[in-house]
Amino acid sequence: MYIDLKKNPFFLADQDIEWVQSTLASMTQEEKIAQLFCLITYTDDEQYLAYLAKGLKVGGVMTRTMSLEEMINTVTRLQKNAKVPMLISANLEAGLNQACSTGTRVGCEMGIAATDDVKYAHELGRIIGEEASALGINWAFAPIIDIDYNFRNPITNTRTFGSDPERVAQFGKAYVEEVQKYGIAASIKHFPGDGVDERDQHLLASVNSLTAEEWENTYGKAYRTSIDAGAKTVMVGHILQPAWSKKLKPTLRDEEIMPGLIAPELLQGLLRGYLGFNGLIVTDSSTMAGMGTVMPREKAVPLTIAAGCDMFLFTKNLEEDMRFMTQGVESGVITKERLDDAVTRILALKASLKLHEKQRDGSLYPDMAAAEKIVGCSEHKKISAEIADRSITLVKEEKGVLPITPQRYKRVLVYKKEGKASAVAAGITEGAADKLIAKLKDEGFDVTEFVPGGGWEGMATPVQDVYDRYDLIVYIANLATKSNQTVVRLEWAEPMGADVPVYMNSVPTVFISLENPYHLLDVPRVKTFINTYGSTEEILDALVKKLTGKSAFCGKSPVDAFCGKWDTRL
Known about the structure:
The protein has 570 residues and is an alpha/beta fold. 38% of the residues lie in helices and 12% in strands. The protein folds into two domains: 14-374, Glycoside hydrolase, family 3, N-terminal domain (TIM Barrel), CATH 3.20.20; 392-569, Rossmann fold. Strands 9-7-5-4-3-2-1-10 form an eight-stranded parallel β-sheet. It has a six-stranded mixed β-sheet with strand order 11-16-15-14-12-13, covered by helices on one side.
């Protein structure tokens, strides 16, 4: 297949194309196959990183969260051991904190969208670009341009720019344009689009069930907008799009419809053909169960490349998956032409990021002193605080309850609804409810935390006791969506739902959701409800100012926080 490397998104000059072609020509079949793999590291261990870069000669590595020093060690050791410069990636959706522990968390995508100002999507891309480039990261697995149509979806949620296709398209484009100014390739994801199904593609092959026309006007618009803006890569998920699969291949039987990363009609027909994408296609994590639920792994691994993906993200078992891929080439499942096509795009992406030039002049390796000045700097933190202030959303308000001050409501009863410790892996702030309680105490409130008592029918605490003891009730929910968790709902304490909001018609009640914008589903008659889209220090500080009347609420909900229910609006 002929690839025009001078066109969007590579825009290579003649000397860059010459490097791509000569590098490809110098590679053995084993080296070409190795370039297909983007593996992962959780460590800066020198021996392990040398094995990936010099031993295996893989095309790229994704990093998990490390300290700044560890990140610099990781990037330097990988690049110094690599014959062909490597793609260094990270999940940079909300900020550099997802790669470096001292990096700036700018704001989740839904929080950015809640500002209702696309300039903050540009700021998200800019800050991530500045900090990532300082650390030598050159590939952002972001932005997410999924559309959060289904409030029950356990993955998309606050990771998206919301449920309006036009906003998703424009905010996604802004991120792409900014981050790529800093030599960071954007990866728009998760093609053909998450957010319709209520199931988790980490656990099964989920379904985008829109008609071809509906898809074209929504997800298609978002993808085309970012592709036209120059997005260099697309990440493809374990997601089916049956309408387009059958439109492009009418003879397909239902059981033959496959998720995007192994569906040639979606990769070659829809993404490359209809949408005109000329860049690099990478699979979503191959360790997710979605691919394994539709066919045996030994068949699926090489089929991702044969179908049209260019890079294979992670492995379940490194030796085995590399063997499966090699067998795919040797058996002809992956033709020599398709292998060269994939590796050409990998090399072209590297050339478009000037990695070959940086390797020659030594600028491929990050500088500790320079990185320390940029990563997590005060200017970036200031923008994060500004976004927090602009995004917090007053979804419902009972007239006369706000603002809350110690003069009006001295005695406050707080109900905490937090996830288990494992939820911290999803990016929520551990102990955020306690931090917010401490801030309320600093404001002068007398705060009592609810503790479920005993007593079943006929023996419960009299309701008058609550009326007499407390002036205000505050709920703090800190429950975030995360992979392999199929439902994010409020669960209530024994006995008999002891912490359900049953006093709100007698005691002023405020419900604050720090991480999930859809909790009204489970507390529909709460009259004052606030979404913050995060639980960082900046967000909690901005929240307290708004609660106490020192700052106005100005966020606009990017989704239907009422979950389509009539009683949530009461």
